[in-house]
Amino acid sequence: MKRREQNARQMVDRFLVELGAPVSDERSERATEDALERLRTDDVQFFTMPPVPASRFALTRAWSAVTAAAMVLVAGGLLQMALLRPSGVAPVAKSVRGELRSTGVASLLNSSARIEAGRVVRAGAEGGALTLLDGSQIDMSPNAELSIVREADGLRVQLSSGTVLVTAAKQHDGHLYVETKDCLISVVGTVFAVSAEESGSRVSVLEGEVQVQRGDISETLVAGQQASTSPKLGPLPDNPGDGWIDSQRLALLQQPVAPALQAPSPNVGVAVKGIVKQASTGMGIPDVTVSLCQGSPGTPVEGKLIARGRQAEPNDAGQPAFPEPIIRNKTFFFAVWDRVVCQARSGIKTDSTGRFQFSNVSPGEYVLTAEREGYAGMSMLGSLGTSKGRKAAYFRFQDGGWATFGASEAGTILAGERQNLTVEAQKIPQEVALTMVRAGVISGHVRDADGKLLVNAQVGIVASPDQGAAGSESIVLTTTTNDLGEYRAYWLLPGEYRVIASGPAGRPSSQTWFPRGASAAEASAVTVREGEEVSVIDIILRPR
Amino acid sequence: MIAIASREAARSLPEEFERIFREHSRFIYRTAYRVTGNREDAEDVLQTLCVRMLRRELPVDFEKNPKAYLYRAAVNVALNLVRSRARSVQIEPALDLEDPALREGSRGDAEIRERLREALAELNRRSAEILILRYVHGYSDAEIARLLGTSRGAIAVSLFRSRARLRKSIRALCKEKNDETPGTER
Hints:
The structure holds 2 protein chains of 2 kinds. Chain A has 3 domains: 72-253, Sandwich (Jelly Rolls); 270-437, Carboxypeptidase-like, regulatory domain (Immunoglobulin-like, Sandwich), CATH 2.60.40.1120; 439-540, Carboxypeptidase-like, regulatory domain (Immunoglobulin-like, Sandwich). Helices cover 8% and strands 43% of the residues of chain A. Chain A is built from 3 helices and 37 strands. In chain A, the strands form 5 sheets. In chain A, strands 2, 3, 4, 5, 6, 7, 8, 9, 10, 11, 12, 13, 14 and 15 form a 14-stranded mixed beta sheet that branches. In chain A, strands 18, 19, 24, 25, 26, 30, 31, 33, 34 and 35 form a 10-stranded antiparallel beta sheet that branches. In chain A, a hairpin with a 7-residue loop joins strand 33 and strand 34. By secondary structure, chain B is mainly alpha-helical. Chain B has 2 domains: 14-104, Rna Polymerase Sigma Factor, Chain: A (Orthogonal Bundle), CATH 1.10.1740; 123-179, Arc Repressor Mutant, subunit A. In chain B, 69% of the residues lie in helices and 1% in strands. Chain B has helices spanning 15-36, 39-54, 66-87, 100-103, 107-122, 125-135, 141-148, 152-180, and one strand at residues 3-4. In chain B, helix 1 packs antiparallel against helix 2 and helix 7 (141-148) packs across helix 8 (152-180). The N and C termini of chain B lie far apart (62 Å). Chains A and B meet through helix 1, helix 2, strand 1, strand 3 and strand 25 of A and strand 1, helix 1, helix 2, helix 3 and helix 5 of B.
């Protein structure tokens, strides 16, 4: 026992000494030059969703600071706290003035105190102000309460009570959102005020313009315009607090408000209906969650394109193909597709025949998404896995091309179906068809060399070389066996796979490819067809 | 439905960005390399930070002390990588055979090192930052205390605890091994 303790000490000491070993300057310089070079040249690819207005997808080249161009004011009712999902703890804002309190911090926030995402901030009796990460300024009325969360493309201020005056910094390629319990305001660079009250919300625009969304209705307000979500809301009270806002602006806000953002009235928008079908049978799929979201790109995630397959031809719809040349080991970006901002929060389920309908959709650009557990979209089949022990994404495209990506930062890649949709006025009804494919399953048992069933044995599902990256094993999924020695790898895209197993983590054991192979070359391919379970893929670990 | 934004000719990068990045890249790389233990991951960390800087995904007060932020971010991204590595099945261990620190090591040593890296990733972030400042960059306790705005005693305690945690992870590893081949180390 004593010896073991001594060994542990020695090993740790040796490890710590090794940490201090020099790193060659030449190597770090080369890495630096490579990193810069990749950004400078074409090797950096931005994957984006195609038909959304080009300007929004422009590459950010905004090193130079951009300053405020517009302002908006908004007021809303009590936000349901359940909606507040703190996303990470990185600071999103700093306190600028006034008595501000934050959850989890006992004392008042100092000026320049950092405010983390998801924290509720409450202004004192004098009001207060914050500066957001993007440079926007938020003046808070006395006792106003809000929190700030990160969105894929910017920040979202959730106003639960009181009034805020927002001086939005010019947004380079993102958005600033202000949300109350009953409306969402998106800003591209404006000054506006929002009030959140028991009976509804009021938005007043002082400069620039904002988009206000309530349910399926969206409206653009320009400078001098106001809107409220309830007829009960009058103009801003005469005395909402002294001094937190200048008198000229206050006067503007005290003009009467027409209740423009009433509950959706019939026949305002267009009906969008459609069906979600299974690829192989053409039958409708029930219970699919379909959302209609205003198009907005996801956050690109950095990663490495490890290898990719054959050049895909542009298809009939004129969708662009992969560019030449074939790239190996180059950094690239791909968009996280599941972080589209669904302004309307309008997820609905398909009925028993796979049909869905949205009514009162106002004209505009949308992204229609369909998601159901166990199903994958046909336009882009993808899954996250590991390649050579590194996190990687593995994609197969509708046209037969494929690619594997090594992602250097975590990002979820959702295999749902997506379609861009332009809703035009007076063109009813719009019929949309989405196609999805049912994922498959590989299952079996893992035994040790003596035939004993193994608990917690590790199992990896590897894409076959003819569809994965040539020469590199791309593990699309890993799982472990249960107490009966069974494993079940589910939600696999149709295709060919090989299966590798090893003993429980941390214990030395041999790796064995199904059925008894020592290397990938000796492995048998397992074919998974749509919606099928391939069972009895049993592996007996080779003796060590 | 995937498209790639139009290819652009070689882009020029903002000067200010390049200057700051170059100034700190060696420090970032060294941190990342020693924490992850291999060149590829270290390059990934460097690239990730480079892109973050270019996209200005930075805290409000970044310009006040870029080095502090970049150091912290490098530690974070590198430790995340080590963690995600720990969770995945490895077909080939991600070792850098060119690293003199590893060249003589046997396979068993590699396993110990990886276990220690994982233990490092499990420490709380501040403790990990302190340990890395101390052992990777060779700062003294007093210097670290000044950098992090705390007392020398607090640093010493943190380092002591972290080392104990690392030893504990090694004892756990030895125990796993002994359980499999009983009697070898009694």
